[in-house]
Fold this sequence. Notes:
Protein name: DUF4432 domain-containing protein
GO molecular function: carbohydrate binding
Number of strands: 25
InterPro entries: DUF4432 (IPR027839), GH-type_carb-bd (IPR014718)
CATH class: Mainly Beta
Order of helices and strands: EEEEEEEEEEEEEEEEEHEEEEEHEEHE
Number of domains: 1
Organism: Rosistilla ulvae
Largest sheet: 8 strands, mixed
Shape: globular
Number of helices: 3
Oligomer: single chain
CATH topology: Beta-galactosidase, Chain A, domain 5
Amino acid sequence: MATNFKNPAAPRTLPAIDWHPPREGCLAAMESAEGQITLKYGTIASGRGAGIEVVQIDTGPMQVTLLPTRGMAIWQVICDGIPFKWNSPVDGPVHPSLVPVHDPGGIGWLEGFDELLVRCGLVSNGAPEFEESGRLRYPLHGRIANTPAERVWAEEIEGRCVVAGEAHEKRLFFNNLILTTRISVAPGGREIEIEDTITNRGSQAAETQMLYHINVGAPVLEEGAKLLLAYEELSPRNAHAASDIPTWDRYPGPKSGYQEQVHLFRVKSDASGSTAMMLQSPGGRQGFGLSYDTTTLPYFIVWKNTAAHEDGYVTGLEPATNFPNPRSFEAERGRVATIPAGGSITHRVNLHPLVGQLNVDAFAAKVHALQGDGSATVHEQPKPDWAS
């Protein structure tokens, strides 16, 4: 069991792992004046996660657990002793072979949903969509989260440790997409840089969607936590979420039976296209910051699910190419990206686990600077073009 539901603020622990030496070409350690990085490679030995490849990176103050078998997901980060994760009732990790992504109901993806960062895509990333006959056309959140990386390697590049992997989403007569993920950290560092390049290996243009489902629970998320976000426009996804508009940026404590709420945003960015936001714990002693390039990820989604801890007390911070509606709804409104034959698109997302008042306050200042004095448009009811 990976999760201690009696102490939801505790770090999660992986099932038994068979550790092994790094493969040829994989970095084991590196040093610089700033510190040392060590890497461990292993495979979960038993249970629903048996066979999942694990890479653990230790920068000194920060430990990062990667799951290449689950689409290069980030399972948990521990920074200065504080865990950044959520306690999923799935209590995984779960091997992709046990996740019924194409379950006829369209939501089999939820049976493996367990990570701090999971990618949704590459062909579709939103709600399930069905043909007129009732047959599933696009499953919830796509396939990439349950697609094992074809190969994984680690190397030192310009003083940083880079762990990389490739995941393929291919189907004869349809698409030939390659996701190349590079996750990099610095010795002594407390920040994670993610660079994802989606390449179209086909001879014709291909369409793609991507959403980063970044999920944070206790100890950062608790009653009184708040979200700092610089935005241009906000809309609730449905009538239920509309009831939360006055308090969209604040979080209650866990409540059994809570019904999830989703809010949709266009965010503000600086001259280079970069934006930033932060989930801040009550009192500001801890925070989880997120920064990313809005050039390719122009939309942002906040998922609030303050259910009982046993049922998944969590919020999702979700940069995306589009809103998480059925794919055809988004396509009709021009929110599906196109990659030319042989071309590629690159997404950049940075994670900032923050511990200590000074670090939290410094990141909050970045968010406030982005917001400036400009006003934002707030829709009290769902905007028709944004929500199906």
